[in-house]
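sry for the spam today, last one i promise. struct tokens for design, 265 residues
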């Protein structure tokens, strides 16, 4: 019996040391959502991020209910905390194989984002889960910077398109007046025909294709549009190809120009 206890103790010690080598914040919860072990990164994060009164967050230490922590969270992160609570419950109850969540966790002097992953502990009965929090701030800031640059580029393209349209209008004004009544009638109906043609092209788009077009106009990346519409990036690429084909456009600049002519924002 003593040998079995010693063997179990060594096994637990080895597992604890293995957890401490992981840079992400890791905790193991029992079937009721109570914390039964944490790694060094988890403990260090709790120590470096005290509560408003300066005390350390005891509710995220061993023996505490992590589910209660999620329910009691208030402020800007409360919505994410409720999603985390529901996700953990779903994995503990066997309703989900795993749960993932990305959420903001800003400090007083730093903007931060984390990803949370919850997975069941293999061969645990009753079911226990591993909760992993990883810092994805650098990735998120890079995505935001890229999106901002794309929006700036799209705005510049739209301005160029507007400028080109104004030049064309100026050139048309400077052209000699038509000499015959038939020429006057032809020039009068040409803009109307063009507008009717554009309107017909616009009506050919499905609701989903129109949503993708508006994402392009706003300068969204495919990934951002996919997230907004709850679709895959591959699906967005397919819809984008259809929009280009239906509107007879060669690229985003022409799509933005088309949207400007139609008054789409």
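last one done:
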């Amino acid at each position: 019996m003593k040998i079995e206890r010693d063997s179990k103790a060594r096994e637990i010690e080895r597992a604890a040391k293995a957890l401490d080598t992981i840079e992400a914040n890791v905790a193991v919860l029992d079937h009721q959502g109570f914390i039964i072990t944490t790694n060094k990164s988890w403990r260090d994060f709790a120590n470096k991020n005290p509560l408003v009164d300066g005390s350390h967050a005891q509710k995220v230490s061993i023996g505490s209910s992590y589910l209660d922590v999620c329910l009691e969270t208030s402020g800007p992160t409360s919505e994410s905390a409720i999603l985390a609570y529901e996700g953990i419950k779903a994995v503990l109850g066997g309703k989900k194989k795993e749960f993932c969540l990305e959420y903001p966790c800003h400090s007083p002097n730093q903007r931060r984002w984390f990803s949370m992953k919850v997975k069941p502990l293999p061969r645990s009965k009753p079911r226990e889960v591993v909760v992993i929090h990883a810092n994805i701030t650098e990735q998120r800031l890079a995505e935001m910077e890229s999106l901002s640059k794309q929006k700036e580029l799209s705005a510049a393209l739209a301005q160029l398109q507007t400028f080109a349209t104004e030049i064309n209008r100026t050139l048309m004004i400077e052209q000699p007046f038509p000499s015959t009544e038939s020429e006057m009638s032809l020039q009068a109906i040409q803009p109307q025909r063009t507008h009717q043609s554009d309107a017909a092209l616009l009506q050919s788009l499905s609701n989903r294709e129109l949503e993708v077009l508006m994402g392009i106009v706003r300068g969204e990346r495919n990934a951002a549009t996919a997230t907004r519409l709850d679709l895959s990036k591959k699906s967005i690429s397919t819809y984008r190809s259809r929009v280009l084909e239906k509107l007879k456009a060669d690229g985003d600049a022409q799509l933005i120009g088309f949207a400007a002519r139609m008054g789409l924002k």
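The beta strands are 25-29, 35-38, 99-104, 113-120, 129-135. ok im logging off now
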